[in-house]
Amino acid sequence: MWLRFKTGMKAMKLSVIGCGYLGAVHAASMAELGHTVVGIDVDAAKIDLLRSGKAPFFEPGLPEILESALASGRLTFSTDMADAEGASVHFIAVGTPQRKGEQAADMTYVNGAVEGLIPFLADGDLVVGKSTVPVGTAARLAKQIAEKSSAQLAWNPEFLREGFAVKDTISPDRLVYGVPAGDAGVQAKAQLDEVYAVALSNDTPVVVTDFATAELVKVSANAFLATKISFINAMAEIADATGADVTQLADAIGFDARIGRRFLNAGVGFGGGCLPKDIRAFTARAEELGRGESVAFLKEVDAINLRQRDRVVEIVRDALDGDVFEKKVAVLGLAFKPNSDDVRDSPALDVAVRLHGLGAAVTATDPEAVANSRRLHPQLVFAAESDVAITDADVIVVVTEWDEFKALDPVAVSKLTAGRIIVDGRNCLDPEVWRAAGFTYIGLGRP
Ligand code: UGA
């Protein structure tokens, strides 16, 4: 399927510590490209699933490469850190979630992974940090590694998007290597070049830099994307107050190549395991560095983002004459974005929970994220099919723009329910088509 190793490229032995969204995809993709890879995780259930070729989460393309890489014998999984021994490059791909009750990142897993790996490192090995970390972490870890081994550290942030994770890993749009100064850095770069030989042979741009820059590239990229989304959501609020249309506004400003149309979709806002916690951790770290004011705007970005959830709930309430109590609400979408079953910090799930909390009779559905949502919020009523959720609903709320929701036929929907109100929390439907079918259509920042 992918352009594999060309003659002369060297297959390497790699370990990947942490087999979540990032690590499982990285391990399978690197094995698919021709390297021999062991994926290591403390979660035995996850490792069992991966060993049997099953992805522990929904990610298009992952089951296929897991299967082929396992069949090739190049990919193995283990719960034992000792199995990292013998690999020459070790990727740290564990999570850095938001600390409970705080804005900062929880570094427990990164620290534990590095500490656990050190006894199995050999001379010349390279430890490669992929996790998103507060700036300064790599320098600290490099010292810690140097005290107990002669391995080197590099920081190589990952920019994959869920839903496109395999493609983004195998054909990244850029590679960033944060390496130490001097010969150690030259050696680390050479090792990373061997790992990424296929991407490099396809002219993938590489930025070779220091640790701090590499760490900051990652958080600043996510901060920029979050800012772009909150910017357009702020414009949607202004559009609502003026009768303007934010989707046309986004198209028009997006034609300016300096601005670009991507990530200018107004709606219920960003969620997931990255953007929300990364902007908070970045703010917390900047404050620790005495530079809080430099990124104070990220608090506003966060506030604008969270406000969109309130707004969707308010719109639903207003559409039902101010009272959602015992009204039947169909919530279409639970995942934080389409093509994912991830509900971490999902605006869609949050809207469902809030409406339920206000006494609405919510039935929520999602093509992939029902199981994860039920685990977190067993109090909600879930439906496997959108038809079931929609039947007899007083209002329909679209909060994740899955293709199957975008393709809903308003005429068919109108036969399932007498309630003719649709709230488009992702501005992903055609207002004219829904209005023509007799619906009251309400988007965000759209007349
Ligand atoms: C994000 C970044 O896009 C990746 O580059 C990065 O590697 C990743 O975080 C990470 O740090 O691991 P991801 O969380 O998969 O990737 O999701 P995005 O595609 O960035 O979407 C984030 C959220 O923004 C979603 O809830 C999405 O619905 C929302 N969004 C996106 C909008 O509300 N409007 C838009 O125009 C675009």
Describe this structure in words.
- The chain has helices at residues 21-32, 44-51, 62-72, 108-117, 137-148, 165-170, 182-195, 197-201, 211-242, 246-254, 275-288, 297-319, 347-357, 370-376, 386-390, 403-406, 410-416, 431-436, and strands spanning 13-17, 36-40, 75-78, 89-92, 126-129, 152-155, 175-178, 206-209, 328-332, 361-365, 381-383, 395-398, 421-424, 440-442.
- The mean pLDDT is 96.
- 44% of the residues lie in helices and 13% in strands.
- A 6-stranded parallel beta sheet has the order 3-2-1-4-5-6, sandwiched between helices. Strands 11-10-9-12-13-14 form a 6-stranded parallel beta sheet. A two-stranded parallel sheet has the order 7-8.
- It is an alpha/beta fold and 447 residues long.
- 50% of the residues are buried.
- Uridine-5'-diphosphate-glucuronic acid (UGA) is lined by residues 132, 158-162, 222, 225, 229, 263-265, 267, 269-272, 274-275, 336-337.
- Uridine-5'-diphosphate-glucuronic acid is lined by residues 132, 158-162, 222, 225, 229, 263-265, 267, 269-272, 274-275, 336-337.
